[in-house]
Amino acid sequence: MEKFDSENKSPESIQEILNERARLEKLLKEKFTKSVAIMFTDIKGSTEFFEKYGDLAGREMINKHNTILFPIIEGRGKIVKTIGDAMMAYFDDPEGAVETAIEMQKALQEYNRTVTKRDEIHIRIGINYGTGIVEEREDGTLDVYGDVVNTAARVEAGGGKKADQILISRSVYEAVRNSEKILCRYYGSIEAKGKAEPLDIYRIVWDPEQEEVLAGTPTRSSGASEVSPGAASEVFISYSSKDREKVMGFAQRLRAVGVSVWIDQRDISGATLWGQEIVEAIEKCKVLLLMASRSSISSPNVVKEVVLASERNKHILPLHLEPIEIPKTLRYPLAGIQHIELFREDQEATLRTVLRSLIRLGVKVEESPETRHKPRPSCTLIVAREENQLRVVAYEIAEYDYKTVQQHETCTVTDVELAALSQNIMNVLAETKAGEKVSKEKLIKLRNAGRSLYDKLLTSEAKRLLHTTQAKDLTLVLDDPLIQIPWELVYDGEQFFCQKFNMGRIISTSQTVLNAKARSVGRPLKMLILANPTGDLPAAHEEGLKILGALEKEDAENDLISARLEESSLKALDILKNLHNFDMVHYAGHADYDDTNPSHSGWLMKDEKLKASSIVEIGKKHVLPSLVFANSCASGRTEEWKVDPRFGERIFGMASAFLLAGVQHYIGTFWEVLDQPSSDFALRFYQELLEGKPVGEAVREARMSLISKYGEETIVWASYVLYGNPSFRYLSPAHEKAGTEKEPVETDPVRGVKDITLPEPALPKVRWKKEKLVPILLGLGVLLGLMAYRFWSPPFIEKKESALYEQAYQELRSHNLEKAQALFEALVDAGKENPGPGYEGLAGVYYEKKDYAKALEFAEKALEKNPESAYALALKGDILLEKGDIDEAVKMYKQAIQFKKGAPWQLAMVRNRLGRTLAAQGSAEEALKQYDQAISLDPSYSEVYSNKGVLLGNLDRVEEAVQVYRRAVELNPKDTLAQVLLKHMQQRQNETTDPERQKRIDALIDDLAQRYRAGKFVSTGSQGEMDPWTSKPMVLALMPFEVKGAISTRAGEEELLTLQLTDLLQETGRVLVVERRILENLLQELKLGSSELADPTTGLKLGRILGARLISTGTITRRAGAGLVNLRLVETETTAIKGALSEKWEREDLLEGAAKALAQKITEKIKKEYPLRGLIALADDESSVVINIGARQGVTSGTIMKMIKEGTPITSAGKILGAEKEDLGLLEITSVEENFSRGKVLKRTQGIEKGMKVEEVAG
Fold first, then answer.
1. How does 790-809 read in b/e, with b if 16+ C-beta sit within 10 Å?
2. Which pTM value belongs to this model?
C-alpha cells in the first residue's frame, strides 16, 4: 500500500482514517461537547384554540406567549428554536433552568389573572440535564444535539394533558434537590422510546396553592402517573360550638403529634354554614371524631355529619366529653362502636388510647403514643387583695388541659407590712451605685429580703406547689394594689422566682381597658427599634445596631421579623402617628419617671418627651403593638393602680399606660441598668424569641445568660419584669407554616374584673364589667380615629366620610391591604349617592394586590360615577405600565392631568407618573416640567424629588441633583434609594471640586481608552507567572445591567442595585470592585451604550483593560411590581462562566434586601471557585507561621487553611493533567497585614518548611 502523504487532503489507509476519526472525535468533544440543561415547553390546548378561534387568533396567542416568556429565558439561558407552540431552550446549569421555569409559570399565572378565560395561556415544561453537542453559529444562533435533547422532550411529554407543570428528569432532580429555593416531588415513571428502563420524572412545586404532598405511590406505566389533587386531612372533628374550648385544646394535642386534623373553627349553629366545604372534608377523611356531649348530640349539624360519614363508610370514633346517653338519631350510625371517655382524670393515658385507636384505623401519627413527650405544664398563682388579707389560688395544669374548680387560701398582711417588705428589697438595691456589683453580703441581704416575701405572701399550699412543681411557666395574676411588690425576687431558699420560672404578670383591675381587641400577629413581625433618640447615649446607639444586625443574621432565610432602626432623627409626634403600624417596639434610651405624677413619665425623644398621657390618647384610637420592650432606667415601674372614675384625669406611668392601652406584653426595668449587660440581655431575648420560644422563657434565658457571663452580683438580671402571658409564642416552631396569623393573645396583661372567681381553663380570660364597656369606642374607634395622611377632606365626599376616606388611604399606603379594602368597601356603603371614592380606593387596593383585572374593573366603576377622576385614570395608566405598554400609559396619564378632581397628593402622583414615563422615553425637559408641577401640588411628596434627582444626574446637572435628593431624604429618611443615590451624587459633586483628582481620573481614562482601541489587554490569569500558585487580589468589574420588562415607577432601581452591590462586596474584603465612576467615564469615552454592551466580548475586553479577573453581566426584569436580577460571573482570561446567580424582590421597597442576598451569593461563589492560596514565608517554630498573602488578597482573621504537598504529576500523552495533593495539616489565621498574615498551626503530620503550599478550606 502506498504510504500516506500528510500533504494530501484525505487519508487513504484504514489506520489513517481511524486516526483521523479519533482526532475529530476528540476535537468535537473538547470544543462542542458540554454539560447542558435543556428545556422544552408546550402550550396546553393550542390545537383546539386554533381550530375554534382561527389562525390569526392562534398566532396572536403564541406571540403573547413569546413576549412574556422570551425575556425571562434570555436572562439566564438561550432560546434554541420554536416549533409552532413548542419551544426549546438551553441553560448552562440545571438550577438556573428550574428557577427560570418557575419564573415563567408565575409570569403566565400573573398574566392569566388579567385576561378572560379564553385568552389564558397554560404551558407544561420539561427539563433534562446531561452532556450534549452544542453548535454555536457565527450569526449568534445555536443548536444542541444528543440524548439530552431527546430525553428533555420526553420528560415534557410525560405530563400528559396536565398544564401549569414543571417536570424534570432524575439528573436535574439530583442537581437541584438540595436547593433552598426548589421543592421537588416524585411524579412517576414513563416508558421512553429507545430507553431500556423507564424514566423517573419529578414535579417542581412552584405555586404555594399546589399541593405539596402526593397521595399514594405512583406506579410505572406508559405515561406519567396521575396524582391526587391534594392530600386531605385524615381526621374530621365533629363538635358543638358550646364545647369549643375543650375541643380546640384536644385538636391541638392531636396536631402536636402529627395528626392531620380538619376542624371548622366557626360557630356551627346555623344551617347555612353546613355546606360543601364540610361535605368535601368528610368525604376525604379517614376517621370522624365525634366529640359527644349533651350539646353536640342534640345539634342537627353534628347529626348530619355523623350520618354522612356512616353513608360514606368512614370510620367513626366517639369521644365522650361527659356522661351522656346516645339519642335515637345517632344509634344506628354508632351501633356497635365503642367510645372513649375524655372526662377521665388521666388525660395523658386517655390521649394515648385515642392515638392507638387512630393508628389502627389507618391514621398517620408522627410520634408514638407510648413514647410521646409529656405536655408542657404551667403554674398559675392568683393573688387578690381583700382588706388586710391576701386571697391566694395556686394550681398546675398540663398544656391544653383545663381546670374547673380550685381551692383558695388566705393569709393576713397589712398595708404597712406590704410596703415594708417591698422597701427591704429596694433598700438593698439602692445601696449599690450604678455600674457596681453588689457585695456577697448584700446579695445575702437580697436573698433574705426575698425570703421574707416568700414567707409572708404565700400560703402553705402555694409554697408546696411552687417548691415541688416541674413546671417552668409561672403566671402571676395580681390585683393592682400588689403590683409594686417585686415578685420576681421572691426567694424560696434555693432560687429567686425569676431564675426558677418563666414569669409573667397579668393584672386584675376594675379600670376600663382602652382597647379590648388584642392585636393579631403573624410572620413577618414588624418591629420598631428606637435607639438613642436623644443622641447622647452611644451605648444605646450600639444596642440598636446590634439588635438589628442580630435579627437580620438570625432571620436571613426565614422571614420571621422585619426590623427597622430609628435614631435621633425621629420626633415624638412621628412615633405616635405610626406606633400602631408595628407589632413590637424596642426602646433604648432615657426614661424619665416622675414619682410625684406618673402621668408626666415618658421616653425622652429628640424634641420632647413621649408622655404616658400621649400613649393613653393614642390607645383610644388604635390597636397598639403587641410587645413593648423598654430597655431603660425606671421603665417598668408603676404606681398602685387605684380605681378612679375620672379616667381621663388619672394617667399612669409608661408601663401602666401601655398595658391599659392594650399592649399584650411589656418588658421594662425597675432601676438603672448597665449598658453592656442590658444590651446583652436584649440580644439574647430576641434570639430566643426568633427560635420560637415563649416570651417568658425568652426573658428567663436572657436573665440566666447575664448571670453566666457577669455573675449573680451584677444584678441587671433582676431588673427586668414581664407583663403578659409568659407561655405565648410570637413565632411558631419551625415545622409550622410560615405566614399564618396567630389568634389574639387570650390573656391580656390587664384584666377587666376586680373580683377573682374560680379559674377558667388554662388561664383566666379577660372580662370587663358591662357598665365599663364602650362599644362605640371598640366598634368605631379604628374607623374614625386613625391618623390621616394629610388633613384634607376631598370636595366630592361628605365631611363625615372624609376621616374614613383618609384612614383607608393611610392603610393602603402602609400596605395593610386587607384593612384598606374593608374600609373602602365601608366607604362604598356609606356613600350610596356617590360610591365613586370607594371604587377608586378599591381599584388601588387590587392594583397593589396585583389583581389588575379587578383593579381595572373598579377603576371603570369609579369613572362611571366620576368621569373626571384623575386618580382612577392614573391607575389605568399604572396597569398599562405594568404590562409594558409605556406609550399607552403616557396617553392615559396625559388624559388624567386634564382633570382637577382629587386630593393634592393624587394629582401630584399623576404628574410624577407622567414625568417618570416621559423620562424613560427620552423627553427629559418635558419630564422635568411634570416633576416640578407635582412638587407644586404636593411639596411633601418625597418620591417625586427622588425621580427628579435621577433625571438631573443623567443630565450631568449634579448640583441640582444633590439638592433634590437632599429634600427627598429630609421628607422620608427611611427611603434607602434616595439615601444611596444622594451619597453617590455627592461623590460626583466632590470630584468636580477636586481638580487634581479629576485630572488623574481623566489621564487614567485616556490611557485605558487607548489600550482598549489598540487591543493591549492586561493578563488577569496566572499563566506565565513566576508564582502561579499564590492568589492575586480578586478584582471584579460590575457591568451595567440591561433593564427589561416594565419600567418601575421609581427611577434609579438599577443604579441602586449596582451601588449597593459595590459597597457590600467591598465590605467583605474578599473582592475589589472597579470604581463605578472609572467604568462610567470609560464607557462614555469609548461611546459604548447598552447595545454594544449586549455583546459579551465587549464586556470581556473592558474587564481585561481594567485588570479585572471577573466581570459581571446581567439583566433586571420587572413585572407586576416585582423584580428579578439575573447575573453571570465570567472569567476575563478564559471566558468561562463561573456562576449564574439570581435574586428577586416582590416590591420596590424590598430591593435593598435583594442586593444583600445577591452580594452574599457572589461572595460565596467566588470563595468556592477561587479559594485563597499562598506559601509559607516564615516558620519560626512548629506552632506558628507567616504566609505570603494578606488583606490585599482577601485574607481575614479566623480563616482556616490546609497545608498541602503536591505528589507525582499525573500525565497523559506527555501532558501534565495535575498532581495528587497530600494534606499535611491545618492552620488558622490569627492576624492579617496588607501583604502577609500570621497563623497558628492547629494540626500537622510532618515538619513545616518555608515554601510549603497552603489553601483555604471550603466553608
1. eeebbebbeeebbebbbbbb
2. 0.41
Q: Give the total residue count for the chain.
A: 1259
CB atoms within 10 A of CB 897: 18
Domains for the chain: give ranges and CATH numbers: 22-221 (3.30.70.1230), 235-360 (3.40.50.10140), 377-508 (no CATH), 525-744 (3.40.50.1460), 995-1169 (3.40.50.10070), 1173-1256 (2.40.10.410)
- Sequence-ordered list of residues with C-beta below 8 angstroms from that of 249, at least 6 positions apart, any chain: 400, 401, 402, 761, 762
Query: Please, what sign has the CA dihedral across residues 164, 169, 174, 175?
Result: negative
Cα separations (Å) of 74 from 90, 471, 944, 1042, 1139? 10, 60, 33, 11, 16
Ranking 71-75, 1107-1111, 1218-1222 by mean pLDDT, the lowest is 1218-1222
- C-alpha 588/C-alpha 637 separation (Å) is 16
Hey, which residues does 1043 pair with through a beta bridge?
1116
d(CA 584, CA 591): 18
Distance CA 29, CA 34 (A): 8
Grid cell locating 295:
350539646
At how many degrees (to 10) do helices 976-992 and 1151-1169 cross?
70
**How many angstroms separate the Cα of 1006 from the Cα of each of 743, 945, 1001?**
66, 35, 9
The rounded mean pLDDT for the chain is 77
Lowest pLDDT segment from 243-247, 546-550, 1099-1103: 1099-1103
Identify the residue whose cell numbers are 402571676.
476
For residue 651, the 8-state DSSP code is -
HSE at residue 60, side-chain half, CA atoms within 13 A, is 9
Quote the cell numbers at residue 506: 397579668
The confidence score (pLDDT) of residue 265 equals 54
pLDDT digits (tens, 9 = 90+) for 136-170: 887 778 889 888 999 999 999 887 767 888 999 98
pLDDT tens track for 820-843: 888 888 778 776 667 888 888 898
User: Cα dist. 210→42, 185, 230, 613 in Å?
Assistant: 20, 11, 8, 50
Contact in structure between 543 and 682 (CB atoms under 8 Å): yes
In eight-state DSSP terms, residue 622 is S
For residue 1209, the SS3 value is: strand
Q: Measured between alpha carbons, how far is 253 from 643 in angstroms, rounded to an integer?
A: 41
Handedness of CA 1219, 1224, 1227, 1233 (dihedral sign): negative
CA triple 262-267-272, angle to 5 deg: 95
Q: Give the whole-angstrom CA distance, residue 52 versus residue 156.
A: 25
Q: Read off the C-alpha cell for 412.
A: 393576713
Beta bridge partners of 380: 395, 475
Cα dihedral 497, 498, 500, 506 sign: positive
Reference 982, options 998, 960, 1005; nearest CA is 960
Place of cell 370636595: 795
**Helix %, strand %, coil % of the chain (to 5):** 45, 20, 35
* Contact by Cβ (8 Å): 649, 665: no
Average pLDDT of the segment spanning 711-730: 84
Give me the phi and psi of 1065, to 5 degrees please. Answer: -70, -40
SS3 at position 113: coil
Give the burial class of 109: count Cβ atoms within 10 A of its Cβ; 0-12 exposed, 13-18 middle, 19 or more buried.
middle
Instruction: Give me the residue label for grid cell 413590637.
Output: 584
Instruction: Find out whether 487 and 645 touch, Cβ atoms under 8 Å.
Output: no
Neighbours of 758 (CB within 10 A): 12
Contact 284, 232 (CB under 8 A): yes
Strand partners, 88: 40, 81
pLDDT value of residue 293: 93
